[in-house]
Amino acid sequence: MAPRVFWKGYLKLSLVTCPVTMMPATTEGERVRFHTLNARTGNRVTSRYADAVTGKTVEEDDQAKGYPRGEEDHVIIEDDELDAVALESTRTIDIEMFVPQDSIEWIWYDKPHFLMPADTIGEEAYSVIRDAMAATQTVGIARLVLYRRERAVMLEPRDNGILVWTLRYGDEVRDESAYFGAPAKDKPDPAQMKLALRLIDERIEPWDEAMVHDPVQERLLEIIAAKKKGRKKAKPKPAEEEKPGNVINIMDALKKSLASERKGKPG
């Protein structure tokens, strides 16, 4: 069965418009999920909003959004006030500008989505916009309401399609200089660098999706399958925590690392 369309609207560049659909490029649908149960009865546990003072359940019609201005003091924002500052159209990706493709660092990228033409009529306009971005090595910047928030999005040409990346807000990306500090004045020792480069070269492999498999999920599925069959899976012995020793001589450590790499590889 074909997946349900996540978003449907229009892609617009000046007077050029075409109908498009969008789907998330990633999924968490295969992740193992658990329900919270009452261990005594086996029944599902439901969650409700409750008044912090009275403890009584607050019905949906009585719930409001409040911005804290002091302890236990809030400014209540009405729904129509939120609507007044939202985008006029939530169904149009209106490309406002283009920037060089390599000018947006990866740290700003949030969630990827596939953008496709909705019908054969719109394919020509869609292809022109995609190929023009590819030819100029640029990406488009627009604003869109997704996941109940207005977001800046980046449109990236990708082979026969367009990727739409939601971008992180400015206050979500921390200043790296507060963590990395100033660059070191002295360059690494050339001999150490030579050994480190050789160590990296020994470990270079072509990218494979198997490199990002989830062993925890695999073990969970084994446990679930065993329980379905009425068997109790043996509890694994706790692994001993490895405690790395203090590295006193970097050169010795690099040489030993290279030697162990060669021993582990077949001749």
Give the radius of gyration.
Answer: 27 Å
**Poorly predicted tracts of residues:** none
Shape summary:
extended
Give the averaged pLDDT, no decimals. Answer: 85
CATH class of the domain at 7-28 and 85-172: Mainly Beta
Query: Which sequence of strands runs across the widest sheet?
Result: 5-1-2-7-10-9-8-6
Describe this structure in words.
It is a single chain. With 267 residues, the chain is α+β, with helices and mostly antiparallel strands. The chain has a domain at 7-28 and 85-172: Beta Barrel (Ku70, Chain: A, Domain 2), CATH 2.40.290. Helix content is 25%, strand content 26%. The strands form two sheets. The protein has an eight-stranded mixed beta sheet with strand order 5-1-2-7-10-9-8-6. Helix 4 runs parallel beside helix 6 (250-264). The chain is extended, with a radius of gyration of 27 Å. The model has no long low-confidence stretch (mean pLDDT 85).
State the main characteristics.
single chain, 267 residues, alpha+beta, Ku70, Chain: A, Domain 2, 8-stranded mixed beta sheet, two-stranded antiparallel sheet, 6 helices, 25% helix
Brief rundown of the structure:
This protein has 267 residues and is an alpha+beta fold.
Question: What is the strand and helix layout of this fold?
Answer:
Blueprint: E1 7-13, E2 16-24, E3 65-70, E4 73-77, H1 79-84, E5 92-94, E6 97-100, E7 109-117, H2 123-136, E8 138-146, E9 149-158, E10 161-167, H3 177-180, H4 190-203, H5 215-228, H6 250-264
Parallel strand pairs: 1-5
Antiparallel strand pairs: 1-2, 2-7, 3-4, 6-8, 7-10, 8-9, 9-10
Helix pairs in contact: 4-6
